[in-house]
């Protein structure tokens, strides 16, 4: 009992310190009784969970301004893909994602693991308290549903990073499931399938509980449906993926941004017609050069480090359509003569998807789910069930809102391409830099082609770079879905303290 009270009090301390940015409610000291007996207390405690996605939280006795859940998430996902190229060798742990030279002791994966379970423990505390209270009014159920959603979301992100794709090895080790406060600290990993089953159960329960909308900066029934669509697609339950994508699309609450509105979609994430759920940042949350998502991939000359860029591979995939408005998020750094500059031989094409909220170069409210993804989920599931025309129609819905009205498929596959090829190619461009690319490749049992110039190539020297040809002779030019390095090692902290946690090979 003492342990439970300690967890509740600790979580409430985070909630009180963080909720000022998310709620106008008073942030006075909250008792455990207030947590379960008042909507105000429950709301403030839950706001603390949302804040953990964006705050700099102490880890191993110190607060590192470069540590933040979302910053590490994008580094661990996107930097391992073929969409972003590294412009130099660096001691920053993000380099492990580029080089695939992973380590159980790398700080970014250790922090991400720690903070994910901190979020999970926090919402478990609220779930436990509310369910023991017996309260089931609409407002309480909405907040309870949000807790189930955040637990499902956190577990799913963990299993994607530390467990093999469901389609490849469903019975392989996943992550440690934490779905109550009575679990022993030393616990074995559940299988990938068991984690997926738990995520789906939590998301379904969340969808049933949430009947109110508190704004796109909070979870909602549509956000839970979106998670269910995504997870079922990864699980290759195409019928369920279509069912839940349909629910979101047919809700009528979200519409694709037009080609005119699209260039401002991400800067205006909290008010965009596409946003289903985002992590809301405000001007108070502008971390500047230190700790922001944008600082590694964009710079106006002084605002960020600007050491990572849109890859030549992605730019080649987009090259046929210069009229595509999605180019607006790829910003070439040019000299006075209009020539694209280079860093250590690598062309500098900045990425601005996480910039310019309130005109600030490092501020954004990253979107976790948006309606474009639902069309693409439905398209992929349709392609896999042989509904080629339906798949191409959904792809065309995206294209006609991105300036490609003259380049629609109109139910006709390009020669030599399958419907799945078309959908994945479109998704690569549409969802670039949003944490999807590697998963889309590997769960479809494909290989990632990294045969382009960049410092993901081990041993590369600037004098080796020759942009007129394709690099050869370097390790990891091609990463097959069977490679053990498509996932990360469990953090050394977990393995040392929990002997039941089996390490990845």
Descriptive keywords:
single chain, 505 residues, mainly alpha, Serine Threonine Protein Phosphatase 5, Tetratricopeptide repeat, two-stranded antiparallel ribbon, two-stranded antiparallel sheet, 16 helices, 10 strands, globular, disordered N terminus
In total, the number of strands is: 10
| Number of helical stretches of at least 4 residues | 16
Give the termini separation.
38 Å
| CATH fold name of one domain | Serine Threonine Protein Phosphatase 5, Tetratricopeptide repeat
Order of helices and strands: HHHHEHHHHHHEEHEEEEEHHHHEEH
Based on the structure given, which CATH architecture of one domain is correct?
A: Alpha Horseshoe
State the secondary-structure class. mainly alpha
Largest sheet geometry? 2 strands, antiparallel
Reading side by side through the largest sheet, how are the strands ordered?
A: 1-3
Quaternary form: single chain
Could you walk me through the main structural features you see in this protein, from its secondary elements to its overall organization?
The chain has 505 residues and is mainly alpha-helical. The chain has a domain of 319 residues: Serine Threonine Protein Phosphatase 5, Tetratricopeptide repeat. Helices cover 41% and strands 6% of the residues. A hairpin with a 2-residue loop joins strand 5 and strand 6. It is globular.
Quickly describe the structure.
Helix content is about 40%, strand content about 5%.
